[in-house]
Amino acid sequence: MDEEGKLPLKRVELSLSKFNEVAIPHHLDLLRQHKANILKYEETGDYSRVRCEQVHARRVSSQLRALLGEMEALRRQVCCADRARFDKLTQHSRDLTLKAIMDYLGVIERSCIAIVESNQTRASACETTPLSVNRPATDDGMESGSLASTDSVGIVPEQVQLRVEPDASMSLREREAVLAGWSALQSEVRALHEAWQSVQAAALRQRRPLEAAADGVEVAADAVGDARTHLALAERLRAGMYGAGGALAGAALFGPAGLLLGAKAGAAAVVAGSALGYLAAAVVGRRRRAQIDERPPDKGQ
Asked: Cα separation of 165 and 160, whole Å?
């Protein structure tokens, strides 16, 4: 009942080849391009373009996640007997996707650390740099009495205006926007990794029973080989025992006749009967050993 409506691998090979040869490689290539652009713009300090590339990378990552979901849905349509082959055909695409995921997570971590350290350096520099005070000049070029009195005690008068550098403020906002972009991209890449884990887990569940069955076949083959080896040794021992058994049989047959002829004649009859029995059985034993030696070796060994 579970196989009703399932398709053989032959029916889905065209769709699978589109995943492996077109869709997934194309999106992985886009991710590589966006990563290279991000690193280039970060190096030049063009944070607006960094933010734009982060948005593009997040969109491509979302599309790649959707492709993995479609590939997993296609796998569920394949009959169980062909799923191992399906997983083997998608292994390379899954490996490349995981490599891209780990690469992006590493870039995100390094970039965030660099931005935070840069902000800390700028904050320390601002703390140690004295502020310049701009005072409006009077018409007659003389300071007013209030300004002079406040200068004497080190109090900044109300007329003094503090000027904040606009470039520094703008750079800080851009860096904060880049950090927010990295956070959003990291969330999307982690979602992509979860989709990859789902596909990978299905492939592993399919592989483990097959590996266990293969191990069982190997163990059974080893057991059969050992059993055949033991049987061959037993045949050789039995063939060797033909001579001893024949000697005992000859002594049993000729012994009573020898006793009727006297003790000496009986002893001679026993020896003669044993010799005849041993020779006859030895011939049979040699033939049996020759048959065993000429037997072709077992392929399982």
From this structure: 16
